[in-house]
Design goal:
This protein has 357 residues and is of the alpha+beta class. It has eight helices and 16 strands. The strands form four sheets. Strands 3, 4, 7, 8, 12, 13 and 14 form a seven-stranded antiparallel beta sheet that branches.
Amino acid sequence: MSHHFDTKLAKEDPSLNLCDFYLFEGVPGTTVMAMIVNPDVGLSASDALHPEGLYAFRFDLDGDAHEDVTFKFRFAEPRHADGEEHLHVQSFEVRRATGDDAVRGAAGDLLVEGETGKVATKSGVRAYVGIAPELFAGDASALHALLTAFYQNHRYDGDAFQHPQNFFARRNVTAIVLEVPTDLIGQGKVHSWATISLYGHAPEMQVSRWGLPLITHIFLNDPTSQDLKEQFNTSAPSEDVDRFSKAVADFTEKMTTYAGSAENPSEYGRQTAALLCPVTLPYELGTPATFERGRFNGRSLGDDVMDVMLSLACNKPLADGVSPDHDRISVEFPYYGAPYTKDEQIGVTPVPHPSKK
């Protein structure tokens, strides 16, 4: 949940909360993309997807920060699963769009149709939507302490991470996973991001975006400028340099000044903003995915992105002491292992949704 509750709509409707995005090589000749929504399924969130939601994976093939190929999921109205009042089943369709259709609307060539909770397969395309284990790991309390010291006390508090606790341990989410023959995307290096839009009785309206982990929670989290999060989620990568690079540069300049970790904090801030904006996930198709401070190349399910982004923000090695649960990663599609059972979740406190406080 590297982007949990970062918009007003996400706080009201978990199915519109785009928490995470993964991009990696699948079986030879294929590429896998995965989007995470519904933080804390089963404890504080439903497993249903929004019937007027357009859940999209977007790919820029030529480096201009505009999508050239888009894969879109649409879902029917949810119905209760047999004998399970709290579990839902929805039919879905996946389309591939290019040209103007890649940018807006629900149009595109139909790739596969299916039902949540089951793997759908057609012509080398595989899709799965269902409850999955949360694989993002992070010490949320320590991050809050780091940022509180930064904004309120104007100091660097690396000691906040001395008592590791994975706030996301043993939680479940809804995973939207798609594996396609790589030639349906393109070749070489791509830049990708995921979005959720509302599309139905009114004109399409983008409500959530994910390009790199923790952008809104670390780099755009000034208490006096919380509207930046809303602006980010409704905007496109092509706007990022103009709209968000100054905020990213200012944050990293101040953080490295407080930490004493850069000879020239102003220059480091500019370099970090240039690295992160436009906010898209680069990936060399057909190569092993690895998300490291010195190299963003897709993102595998086991990458510990919190440590990477913390170290980048502070310009010094900084680890929160927790990591993804690799025992819950599978070598077979949909690459997520079994969700956590009720017995495994004994003692796990439901996430307090802001809209219900």
